[in-house]
Amino acid sequence: MKDFKHIGTSTDKIDALSLATGQSMFVDDISFPNMLHVKFLYSSYAHAIIEDIDTTLAEKHPGVEMVLTYKNTSRVIHTTAGQGWPEPSPYDTYMFNKKMRYIGDRVAAVAAETEEIAREALKLIKVQYKVLPAVLDMEDAMKDGAPIIHDEPEIKGAYDIKHNLAAHILVKVGDVEKGFAESDVVVEDTFEVPYAQHCPIEPHVTITYLDEYGRIVIRTSTQVPFHVRRIVAQVLDIPVQKIRVIKPRIGGGFGVKQEIILEDVCAYITMKTGKPARALFTREEEFVSSRTRHQMKVNVKIGAKKDGIFNAIRMYVLSNTGAYGTHALTVASNAGSKTLPLYNKAPNVEYIADVVYTNLPIAGAYRGYGATQGYACLEQVVDEVAHKLELTPLEIRKKNHIKSGETSPIFRALGEGREGVTQYMQSCALDELIEKGAKEIGWFEKYGKKTRNGSKVRGIGMSIHMQGSGIPLVDMGAATLKMNEDASFNLMYGGTDLGTGLDTIVTQIVAETLGIKPEQVIVYAADTDLTPFDVGAYASSGTFISGGAVLRAAMKIREQIFEVAKEIFGEYDERDFVLEDGKVTSKKTGKSVTLSEIAYQTLYVKNQHQIAATGSMVSPYSPPPFAAHFVEIEVDEETGIITPIKYVTAVDCGTPLNPELVRGQIIGALVNGLSYALSEEYKFTDSGRMVSSNFMEYRIPSTRDIPEIVPIVVRTYEPTGPYGAKSVAEININGPIPAIGNALYDALGVRVHKVPYIPERVLEAIRSKK
Amino acid sequence: MKVCYSVNGKKKEFEIKAGEVLLDVLRRNGYFEVKGNCYMGTCGACTVLIDGLPYTSCTMLAAKVDGSEITTIKGIGTLQKPHPLQKAFVEKGAVQCGFCTPGIILVAYALLKNNPDPTDDDIKKMLDGNLCRCTGYVQQIEAVKLAAKMLKKGDE
Amino acid sequence: MLKLKNVKSCFTPNSIQEAIDIHKKSGGKAVFVGGGLDITVFPNPAIEQLIFLDKLGLTYIRDDVGNIKIGATATITDVTKAPVMQNYLKGKVKIALTELASELLRNQITMGGSIARHHFYSDILPVIYALRGKIMVSDGELVEEFFVDDFYRNDLKVLMETHIVVGVHLNKYDDSFQFGSKRFVRNATDIALLNMAILAQIEEDIIKDVSISVGSRPGPAYRFEQGEAFLRGKKLTKELAEDFESFTKSNVDVTKDMHLCKEYRQHIASIYAKEMLLDFIGGVR
Known about the structure:
The complex is a heterotrimer of chains A (770), B (156) and C (285). Chain A is an alpha+beta fold and 770 residues long. Helices cover 28% and strands 23% of the residues of chain A. In chain A, α6 packs across α7 and α15 (502-514) runs parallel beside α16. Chain C has 13 helices and 12 strands. In chain C, the strands form 3 sheets. In chain C, strands 4-5-8-6-7 form a 5-stranded antiparallel sheet. Chain C has a 4-stranded antiparallel sheet with strand order 9-10-11-12. In chain C, a hairpin with a 4-residue loop joins β6 and β7 (143-147). Chains in contact: A-B, A-C, B-C.
């Protein structure tokens, strides 16, 4: 392992003190004179046509600037998914439309002098609906004769609108039927994984205004500033050059801000009125009208030989994208592509997915991106195979999981809604993760022991996981560095730190490469006018793609510095040079020059030029991080209440560039996953209205809900990543559902096939076993 | 109507509406360090200290606390002179997106005033009203303990 | 977000009399504000006046002869921190109150507000029911005392037009009494979907007296009198606890809603009933 100065140390997060002292850094921490406040009217019906809408009274209401509906806004079909171009999501959305597809769909917007006036004016809008029969169930949606949700002719890119299929995937490797027939045991099971919301504590918020040239500036809480610029330009039918997107500090995203929701409307209002416009979602809007996790029903069938080696795996996913198809295809792809390669020993693999439209809230990107749903089923079925073969969960996984130097045909067969890119594992510590995690949880002492205390029984369970690091040959990030007199460097890059600490990681990468201190790097991100392009923060791409771009820019700067040093030293071979402690030293001659001296010379004295460089990163590699999760639970067999006692997560993310930030990503994702497994629930009425739209009803965890958590980081070196790093942001949300499910089986021999594992369901499972 | 608060030690008059909550008054007057959005007392991001005790300002009627001393995060430490809690949160990696952080630190501040040596359990109970979706809380609990240690050593 | 947009004036009266006068004069458009949580979370647009009770001197917890007297504007935090509560019924009432909601809300929720508004989501009322609390109301001159059961049996709306809740008195129970409470929540700071509390006087293993309360959201809390009758006079044994479990299952009255079905509520109530009795057996010397 290489020795680093700044890589692998827990540099303080560069914005942490500012945030902890309450500096104004978020979108809504500024205000403009004459700013308009935007509020939305939403459909009261799950499926309806607006026959007419009368906004006259609202428009006349004092303080109202404008009312937006399908009648007076541009009709450009697009996707709100903030993905690279061309987006793999269907074009099925308008800024405003006549057709309402769920309770929460946008009917109109009011821009007024105050929020209160806007709210009052909404009540004055008269809407005449023609109510249509709604589809509120995934299986019903595909049936012949089901109401067609997307029947407008302009729709593009959906698979089969007559069956409400937004997307369909079929990938085959080998022959699974033959594979099952030739297996000694075959196990099949189905698990249903529900709707969920990201719940960033800062909801969606956007402020737009005109700059001195009449261009629209969009200051927004987004994970994808460059996609916002492109898609708003598309929807408003104006050139990209007329728009500038600024991402200040963001109060959490987790995928929900990889979406263009408020930006187009605010920009439109500013374009039409010339006035600044602000839209801020309420918590209820965040739950109902932003984005959610795709509800899925996942079926996995595994055939294995007597020795435990898998011979065939089939996964079928039925995914609910809700009213619109944002990320419909790609989330479903990832449910397979981020899970099946883990068990690469099986020569026969089949992956099928149907993604249906329903008249329910819109799904989108959410940390884990389908893998969470896939693992919820896969990792429980793997345990079931083990039980049948009388192998332990550890043994069956060790026999089947992917290892260094190996690949899986799935990498190529199943990409992001198209063919993928073959990946060979260059770093994989799964065996060590399993070993260390097992030791920490006390696996060998506890597994199968079912320790009992009255009605409470202990159980332990485990699961293993992989994810990716960006999307290979799709995701691109770029960074620009320039040198200043004091050997400080401006780093302008398009990477999008949502609170993850990416802006800190990149200072460490620059510091390590240029032999300076991280404090000497002045980070500016992301601003479509001032920073180079980056796809944004998703697909676990921050460190690998954006960080990789920064590394490439820094390497170019290094070369430029050496060029100047050659001149100063009168030497010719940069292989003799060491760049360290703020100076270049020649090992050969002992000559030395500080970076500051180089900066002064190049800026003012001789052969003047700006030392500056831009690096871009796009990679054929997407090295998966790996994790082994272990949980000990206590389940009360009288009440069905599951209490997690201890959770161990052993993670291989290559080189942990900043261990404290890595730990933060691990624990944060894990705790989110825990409450997804146990308490978070979307409740709907029979008419499709979501009724758990606040934190009183939708239970996310507090300090009093967390078990003992032990993160273990096993350091490997990933040659394709910056300083050996792989991603770590998403993977750890995937474990709790299957690990707890397996622990429940260990304790009581039952499985609950519908998540979350609420006490009622657990008790029902216990009873039906008896 | 008019009310008077002492905000972070400075007395000031505020024009308010009789039925509005403290959060809206504070943000309208530029105290952007007070976050929050749930308006149900359920997320804790809008926490301020009112006469030393933490409350969700989104459920506190502005008129009711006329004459009170209000402390926001800027009242306990600044970028130039941070409070040990603020330093500890940075050191322990307890700040991710930072949106919930001011509220959490204020509650922790109230805790340490009364209980300079809190157990994990004390901290968990005290911070249970401040939701954080980024960190998973572990590092925040560690940070409060570290700050307690720093305060005992007199590191102000 | 302007919560109460029709509120025009606020009052901070210095006496109960003054508070009631303002209320009467408002013609039903004024509301008393203890902590203000309920009013801001569930704002009623009909409200035009707010009457703050902060200056009525009702924020106290007194350790009196035979009684713990809690003022209406004392918050849950005030109560849980009061010296007299630390060992009251072995500290179990304090624990029951500490687990409710979150610290920030415990700082704001007042005892009086919880009583006067009689909301389904109150996790405090079941505790007061089990403890047979006495509700003190005043019209400004006289203080009247109601047993909590009677209080809600009266026409509360009519009484509250001319009176305000000034406090609650809790009997000080001797060592022969045991208290227990249980709550079913989705996670720690949730409002209970179902909760139960039992106060039992146990002498020489015989349940001399007992009060049991049940809260099943969205129904308001009530006394489970059939259960009390079942237990009264019986010997506290493991078998009794088990019998009581099945008795509760078939007799407890619970409402269902989208959160939880009736059958599970009956089941969980019966388990809680049994567990609390078993705890008492452990607690009997």
